[in-house]
Amino acid sequence: MRPHSGVRVTSNRAVRQAGHKIVPRDLPRDHKADLSTRVMQIIESEIDAPWLLPSVVEVRTSEHHITPVCPMVGHLAFELAQVVANLPLKISSVEPWTDTKLLVGTQEGVLFVYEAKDGNPRGNMELGVLHKTFSKRPINKLSAIEDPRYNILISLSDSTISIHNLSAQFELQSQIARGCNLYTIEKNERGLWICAAIKKKLHIFQWDNGNFVEIKELPLTANPLSLVWCGDRICVGYKKDYILMHTQTRASKELFPTGNRGVPLCTLLPDQQMLLGRDEVSIFLGHDGQPTRPHGLTWSEMPLVLGYSFPYVLAVLPKSVEIHAVSGSQNLVQTIQLKNPQFLGIKEGKSDSIYVAATNTIWRLISVPIIQQIDQLLNEKDYEQALQLSKHMTTTAELKEKKALQIKMLYAYHMFAQGQYEKAMNFFDELRIDPVLVIGLYPNLLPRDMQPKPTAYPEGSADLNGAALDRALLSLVSFLNLIRPRYLNDPRPIAQEMSEDYATVSAVSVIVDTCLLKALIKTDDRGLMDLVSKTSNRCHLKESKKVLVAAQKENDALVMLYRSKGMHREALELLTRMRLTHQLVSYLKQLGNQQFTLILEFSSHALQTAPDEALSIFTQKRDKEDELPADKCLAHIKPWAPQLIVPFLEYIIHERKDTSPDFHNELISNYLETVRALRGDFSGRSRAQSETGLLATTRKKLMAFLESSQYYTAGRMLTKFPREDLFEERAILLKKIGQHEKALFIYAHELKDYRLAEEYCTKNYNPDKEEASEVFLTLMKVYLKPAEKDRASGGVIEPTIKPALELLNKHYKRMNVTKALELLPPTTPIRQLYPVLEAVVRDSTTEKRNDQVVKNLLKSENRETREALIRARSRAIHINEERMCPVCSKRLGPNVFACYPNNVVTHYACCKDKFTCPVTGRSFRDNN
Known about the structure:
It is a peripheral membrane protein. The protein is α+β, with helices and mostly antiparallel strands. Among the domains are: 71-386, YVTN repeat-like/Quinoprotein amine dehydrogenase (Methylamine Dehydrogenase, Chain H, 7 Propeller); 432-566, no CATH class; 878-927, Herpes Virus-1, CATH 3.30.40. 38% of the residues lie in helices and 20% in strands. It contains 29 helices and 33 strands. The strands form 9 sheets. A 4-stranded antiparallel beta sheet has the order 4-31-30-29, with no helix packed on it. The protein has a 4-stranded antiparallel beta sheet with strand order 5-6-7-8, with no helix packed on it. The protein has a 4-stranded antiparallel beta sheet with strand order 9-10-11-12, with no helix packed on it. Strand 11 (160-165) and strand 12 form a beta hairpin. Helix 2 (370-379) runs antiparallel to helix 3 (383-390), helix 4 (397-417) runs antiparallel to helix 5 and helix 15 (596-609) packs parallel to helix 17 (630-640). It is elongated, with a radius of gyration of 54 Å. Residues 1-72 have low confidence and may be disordered.
């Protein structure tokens, strides 16, 4: 049989049809020079649309016919070579043996071995060996196991699996599984197994010392029509559905129906995947039976056979072979028209060992080099598939990476041109592409001198406007936010460039942040404020100011940009000029002591127009080092907003915990001035609790502060209070300077509030302090012998006997009763003193009896202690010649010894711890 030769014809057009059989007339065999021209003329004459001609057309020539091989879609992945024609016997199976050998089984049981001519794996083939007596029945399946551990050929013929030596003679070694109609093989580093289907059972055989030994039998529910071994499971295809059966647990799992035609097809894929057929669709599943992809492969017709040859899935159809990519888009890559193909032989891991057979014809599919396939895909702009193929290039890692980067670059720009902006940005980031090139895809973002020409991009610059521009800008924002940290440490003189004209800027960090600002203006106000508020931003000030003003964002974004650059005066002047008091106050609140001069300068207007809000400038909580000087703030507030003095002092004292007497004194003075303004002429003796409105609130605050503060000058403050009014406040001040008698006089005679007088004594009584231990007696004196005159009438104040007696009866224990009785008038009836005298006598008697009891108890304790001492001193220790030391086990003898309280006696030298018994371990420390 004469092998066929082939030539290539190139053109700039693409063919979307396939299967043209061209029969040239009067074409001399030796006239090969004009072949290309002639073929193109013939094709152009038969195709209505000549612009659809392919860029690569494969042409097979012989003296009989010319067969162009071109893809329906996608690219040219395989070249076709007819290796066997007009075989007189009917082919029943094909199996690649090595790179250069092919096994062909026939219906008549004859085995053919074809070999590549001159040992070239991609060259022509010729018949090598013929085995006429290989089998008496059709050879339905062949499996060559080249592994040197086994080196066998497995065949299925006459419903029996035969094991042959994989050599030139193929000697029969053994036969197993009689009645078998199909089998599947599992081979890994642990061993070799065969799973054979015999009626409604699966029989599993394991290779053991040169033979297959049956190790397991698994029951089925019906006769299987297909088998594939996947990990620790076996996928079984019935006429109606598929199941997964676990080889260890025997558990089975139903998958899905086989379809209307009931033809199950199974094939294994990498990454623990398998492909199962359902009519014209093939579905991807994992070895656990779970779908691994949302979409399957769709064929033009229902496949007869499925196979996998990295990186493609091949399906034999009734009139063609279709090729799909497993990864990437999984689109149909190529269709090869053949006459009645039926069988497919693929050698695992050998992309050039792919054979398709009809009844008496065999074709070989020779893979086009990966680099050429990639170039085709790039011409077709199928970058996704090109990128997948680049992973499988058999070149150096450096060249592979370089090619992948080239494809990704083209792919990224292509996706951008197609409106897939987010995906494009992901590629740009992965490629670490110069951001200037990415920004250049957008109009009016780069400085004038840096704007690339449209020809700088593979597909030119995209025409962005309207909704497309908005989506593209959103993707650009995400991209620039992601990559901007890489350029923040730009070593170039950034400050100088930011002060120059934007058209001449070259620092990438400045360009990135300025372009990000421009994009955010149109897409995301919140993101814009976040950018301009960062002190790390590198936005070009002049350019940014121009675009922000144009976008009417100077009152917020421009102000924040000034602040991030430390240009506080410019920001404050802008806010003042625009009369944005609220924003001005908010800005000033964020400044600290270092900008105190600016705070004073620009807060004046706010103190006049919005004093309550302006107060927050000075009461804003700041870090310790940024706190504003309180005295200077107070001095600044007084002339502009005197009504804020009290709130500010309250903040300084209560929030900042300032202990300066000046502040405390001034707060009291301001409270007093407010009360004076509200009370008028101070006529009357009204109590604080009887006041209403602001006056009541102010007096309560004044009294509370006088009571709680420890830092004001009480004596100085007392001179400011009137003697004819505000007695409650004066009483507190008198207490502060220790003048209890005068304070009590106010409660007892000015206010006539005996309850407050008693509470005063209770709060201030302290028996350990001389001035406070006699406070109750002082109140008795105030009640009975008042020294002052009545301020209201100017007359003598009469003694108040009743409250004095009540105080004595209730608190006699806290005063010297004798002195208290001396203060009473001689005319006081004795019956009024009876309760206190009775209580004093009773307490004295009780105290005396208690003392006698204690005295007697102490005497008894002393007596017992003396008796115990006498017993201890009189205790005798008997030492005889037989007594041994329990520590050293030697006789005690006349030596010095030690005796523990538990009567353990040892040599004195053996007494290491006088508080712990060396025999029992008992501790006698602290009499325990």
